[in-house]
Amino acid sequence: MPRLVVKQNKKLILKKVINKTLDLIPFENLDIEINKFYNNIQILKAQTFGPLIIRNKGVKISENGDITSDYDLYIQAHDYKQYKNQFNVLDEVVVEYCLYIRYEGKPEYLQLAFNKLEIYEYEEDIITRGDIYMVSIEESEDHIVMDIFKPVKMI
What we know:
6-stranded antiparallel barrel; 2 helices; 50% strand; alpha+beta; single chain; Multidrug-efflux Transporter 1 Regulator Bmrr, Chain A
């Protein structure tokens, strides 16, 4: 079993970005919303490169107990500017001073990478911003490779 190694001061840089913001999404609907975004990108025949990046901006609990999260979806595309009427487009997204971990293994154990980051934060007395970027490198039914970036709050 490969070791989960946390690294500090990593930087995530995305260029020529198409972005969609998803607010107040129940976790059980996230895959549906991601598929809608990805299908729209394919229908538009965007010249994409690189993987899909998901930013989880945090969890919210409503007064009646509904749990939702806010997300940003990012994909890089050579022809990104022509989609400015359908999506947010950004020349560059730079996320600095991140804790970083790469997970490779069975999807059911992916949570261990998130747990390892939280333990590392606790042991090293690090305060993070609360958002997390997940870069899905490879994904199949029985194997996943994901890079996880967690920005550190600068004091």
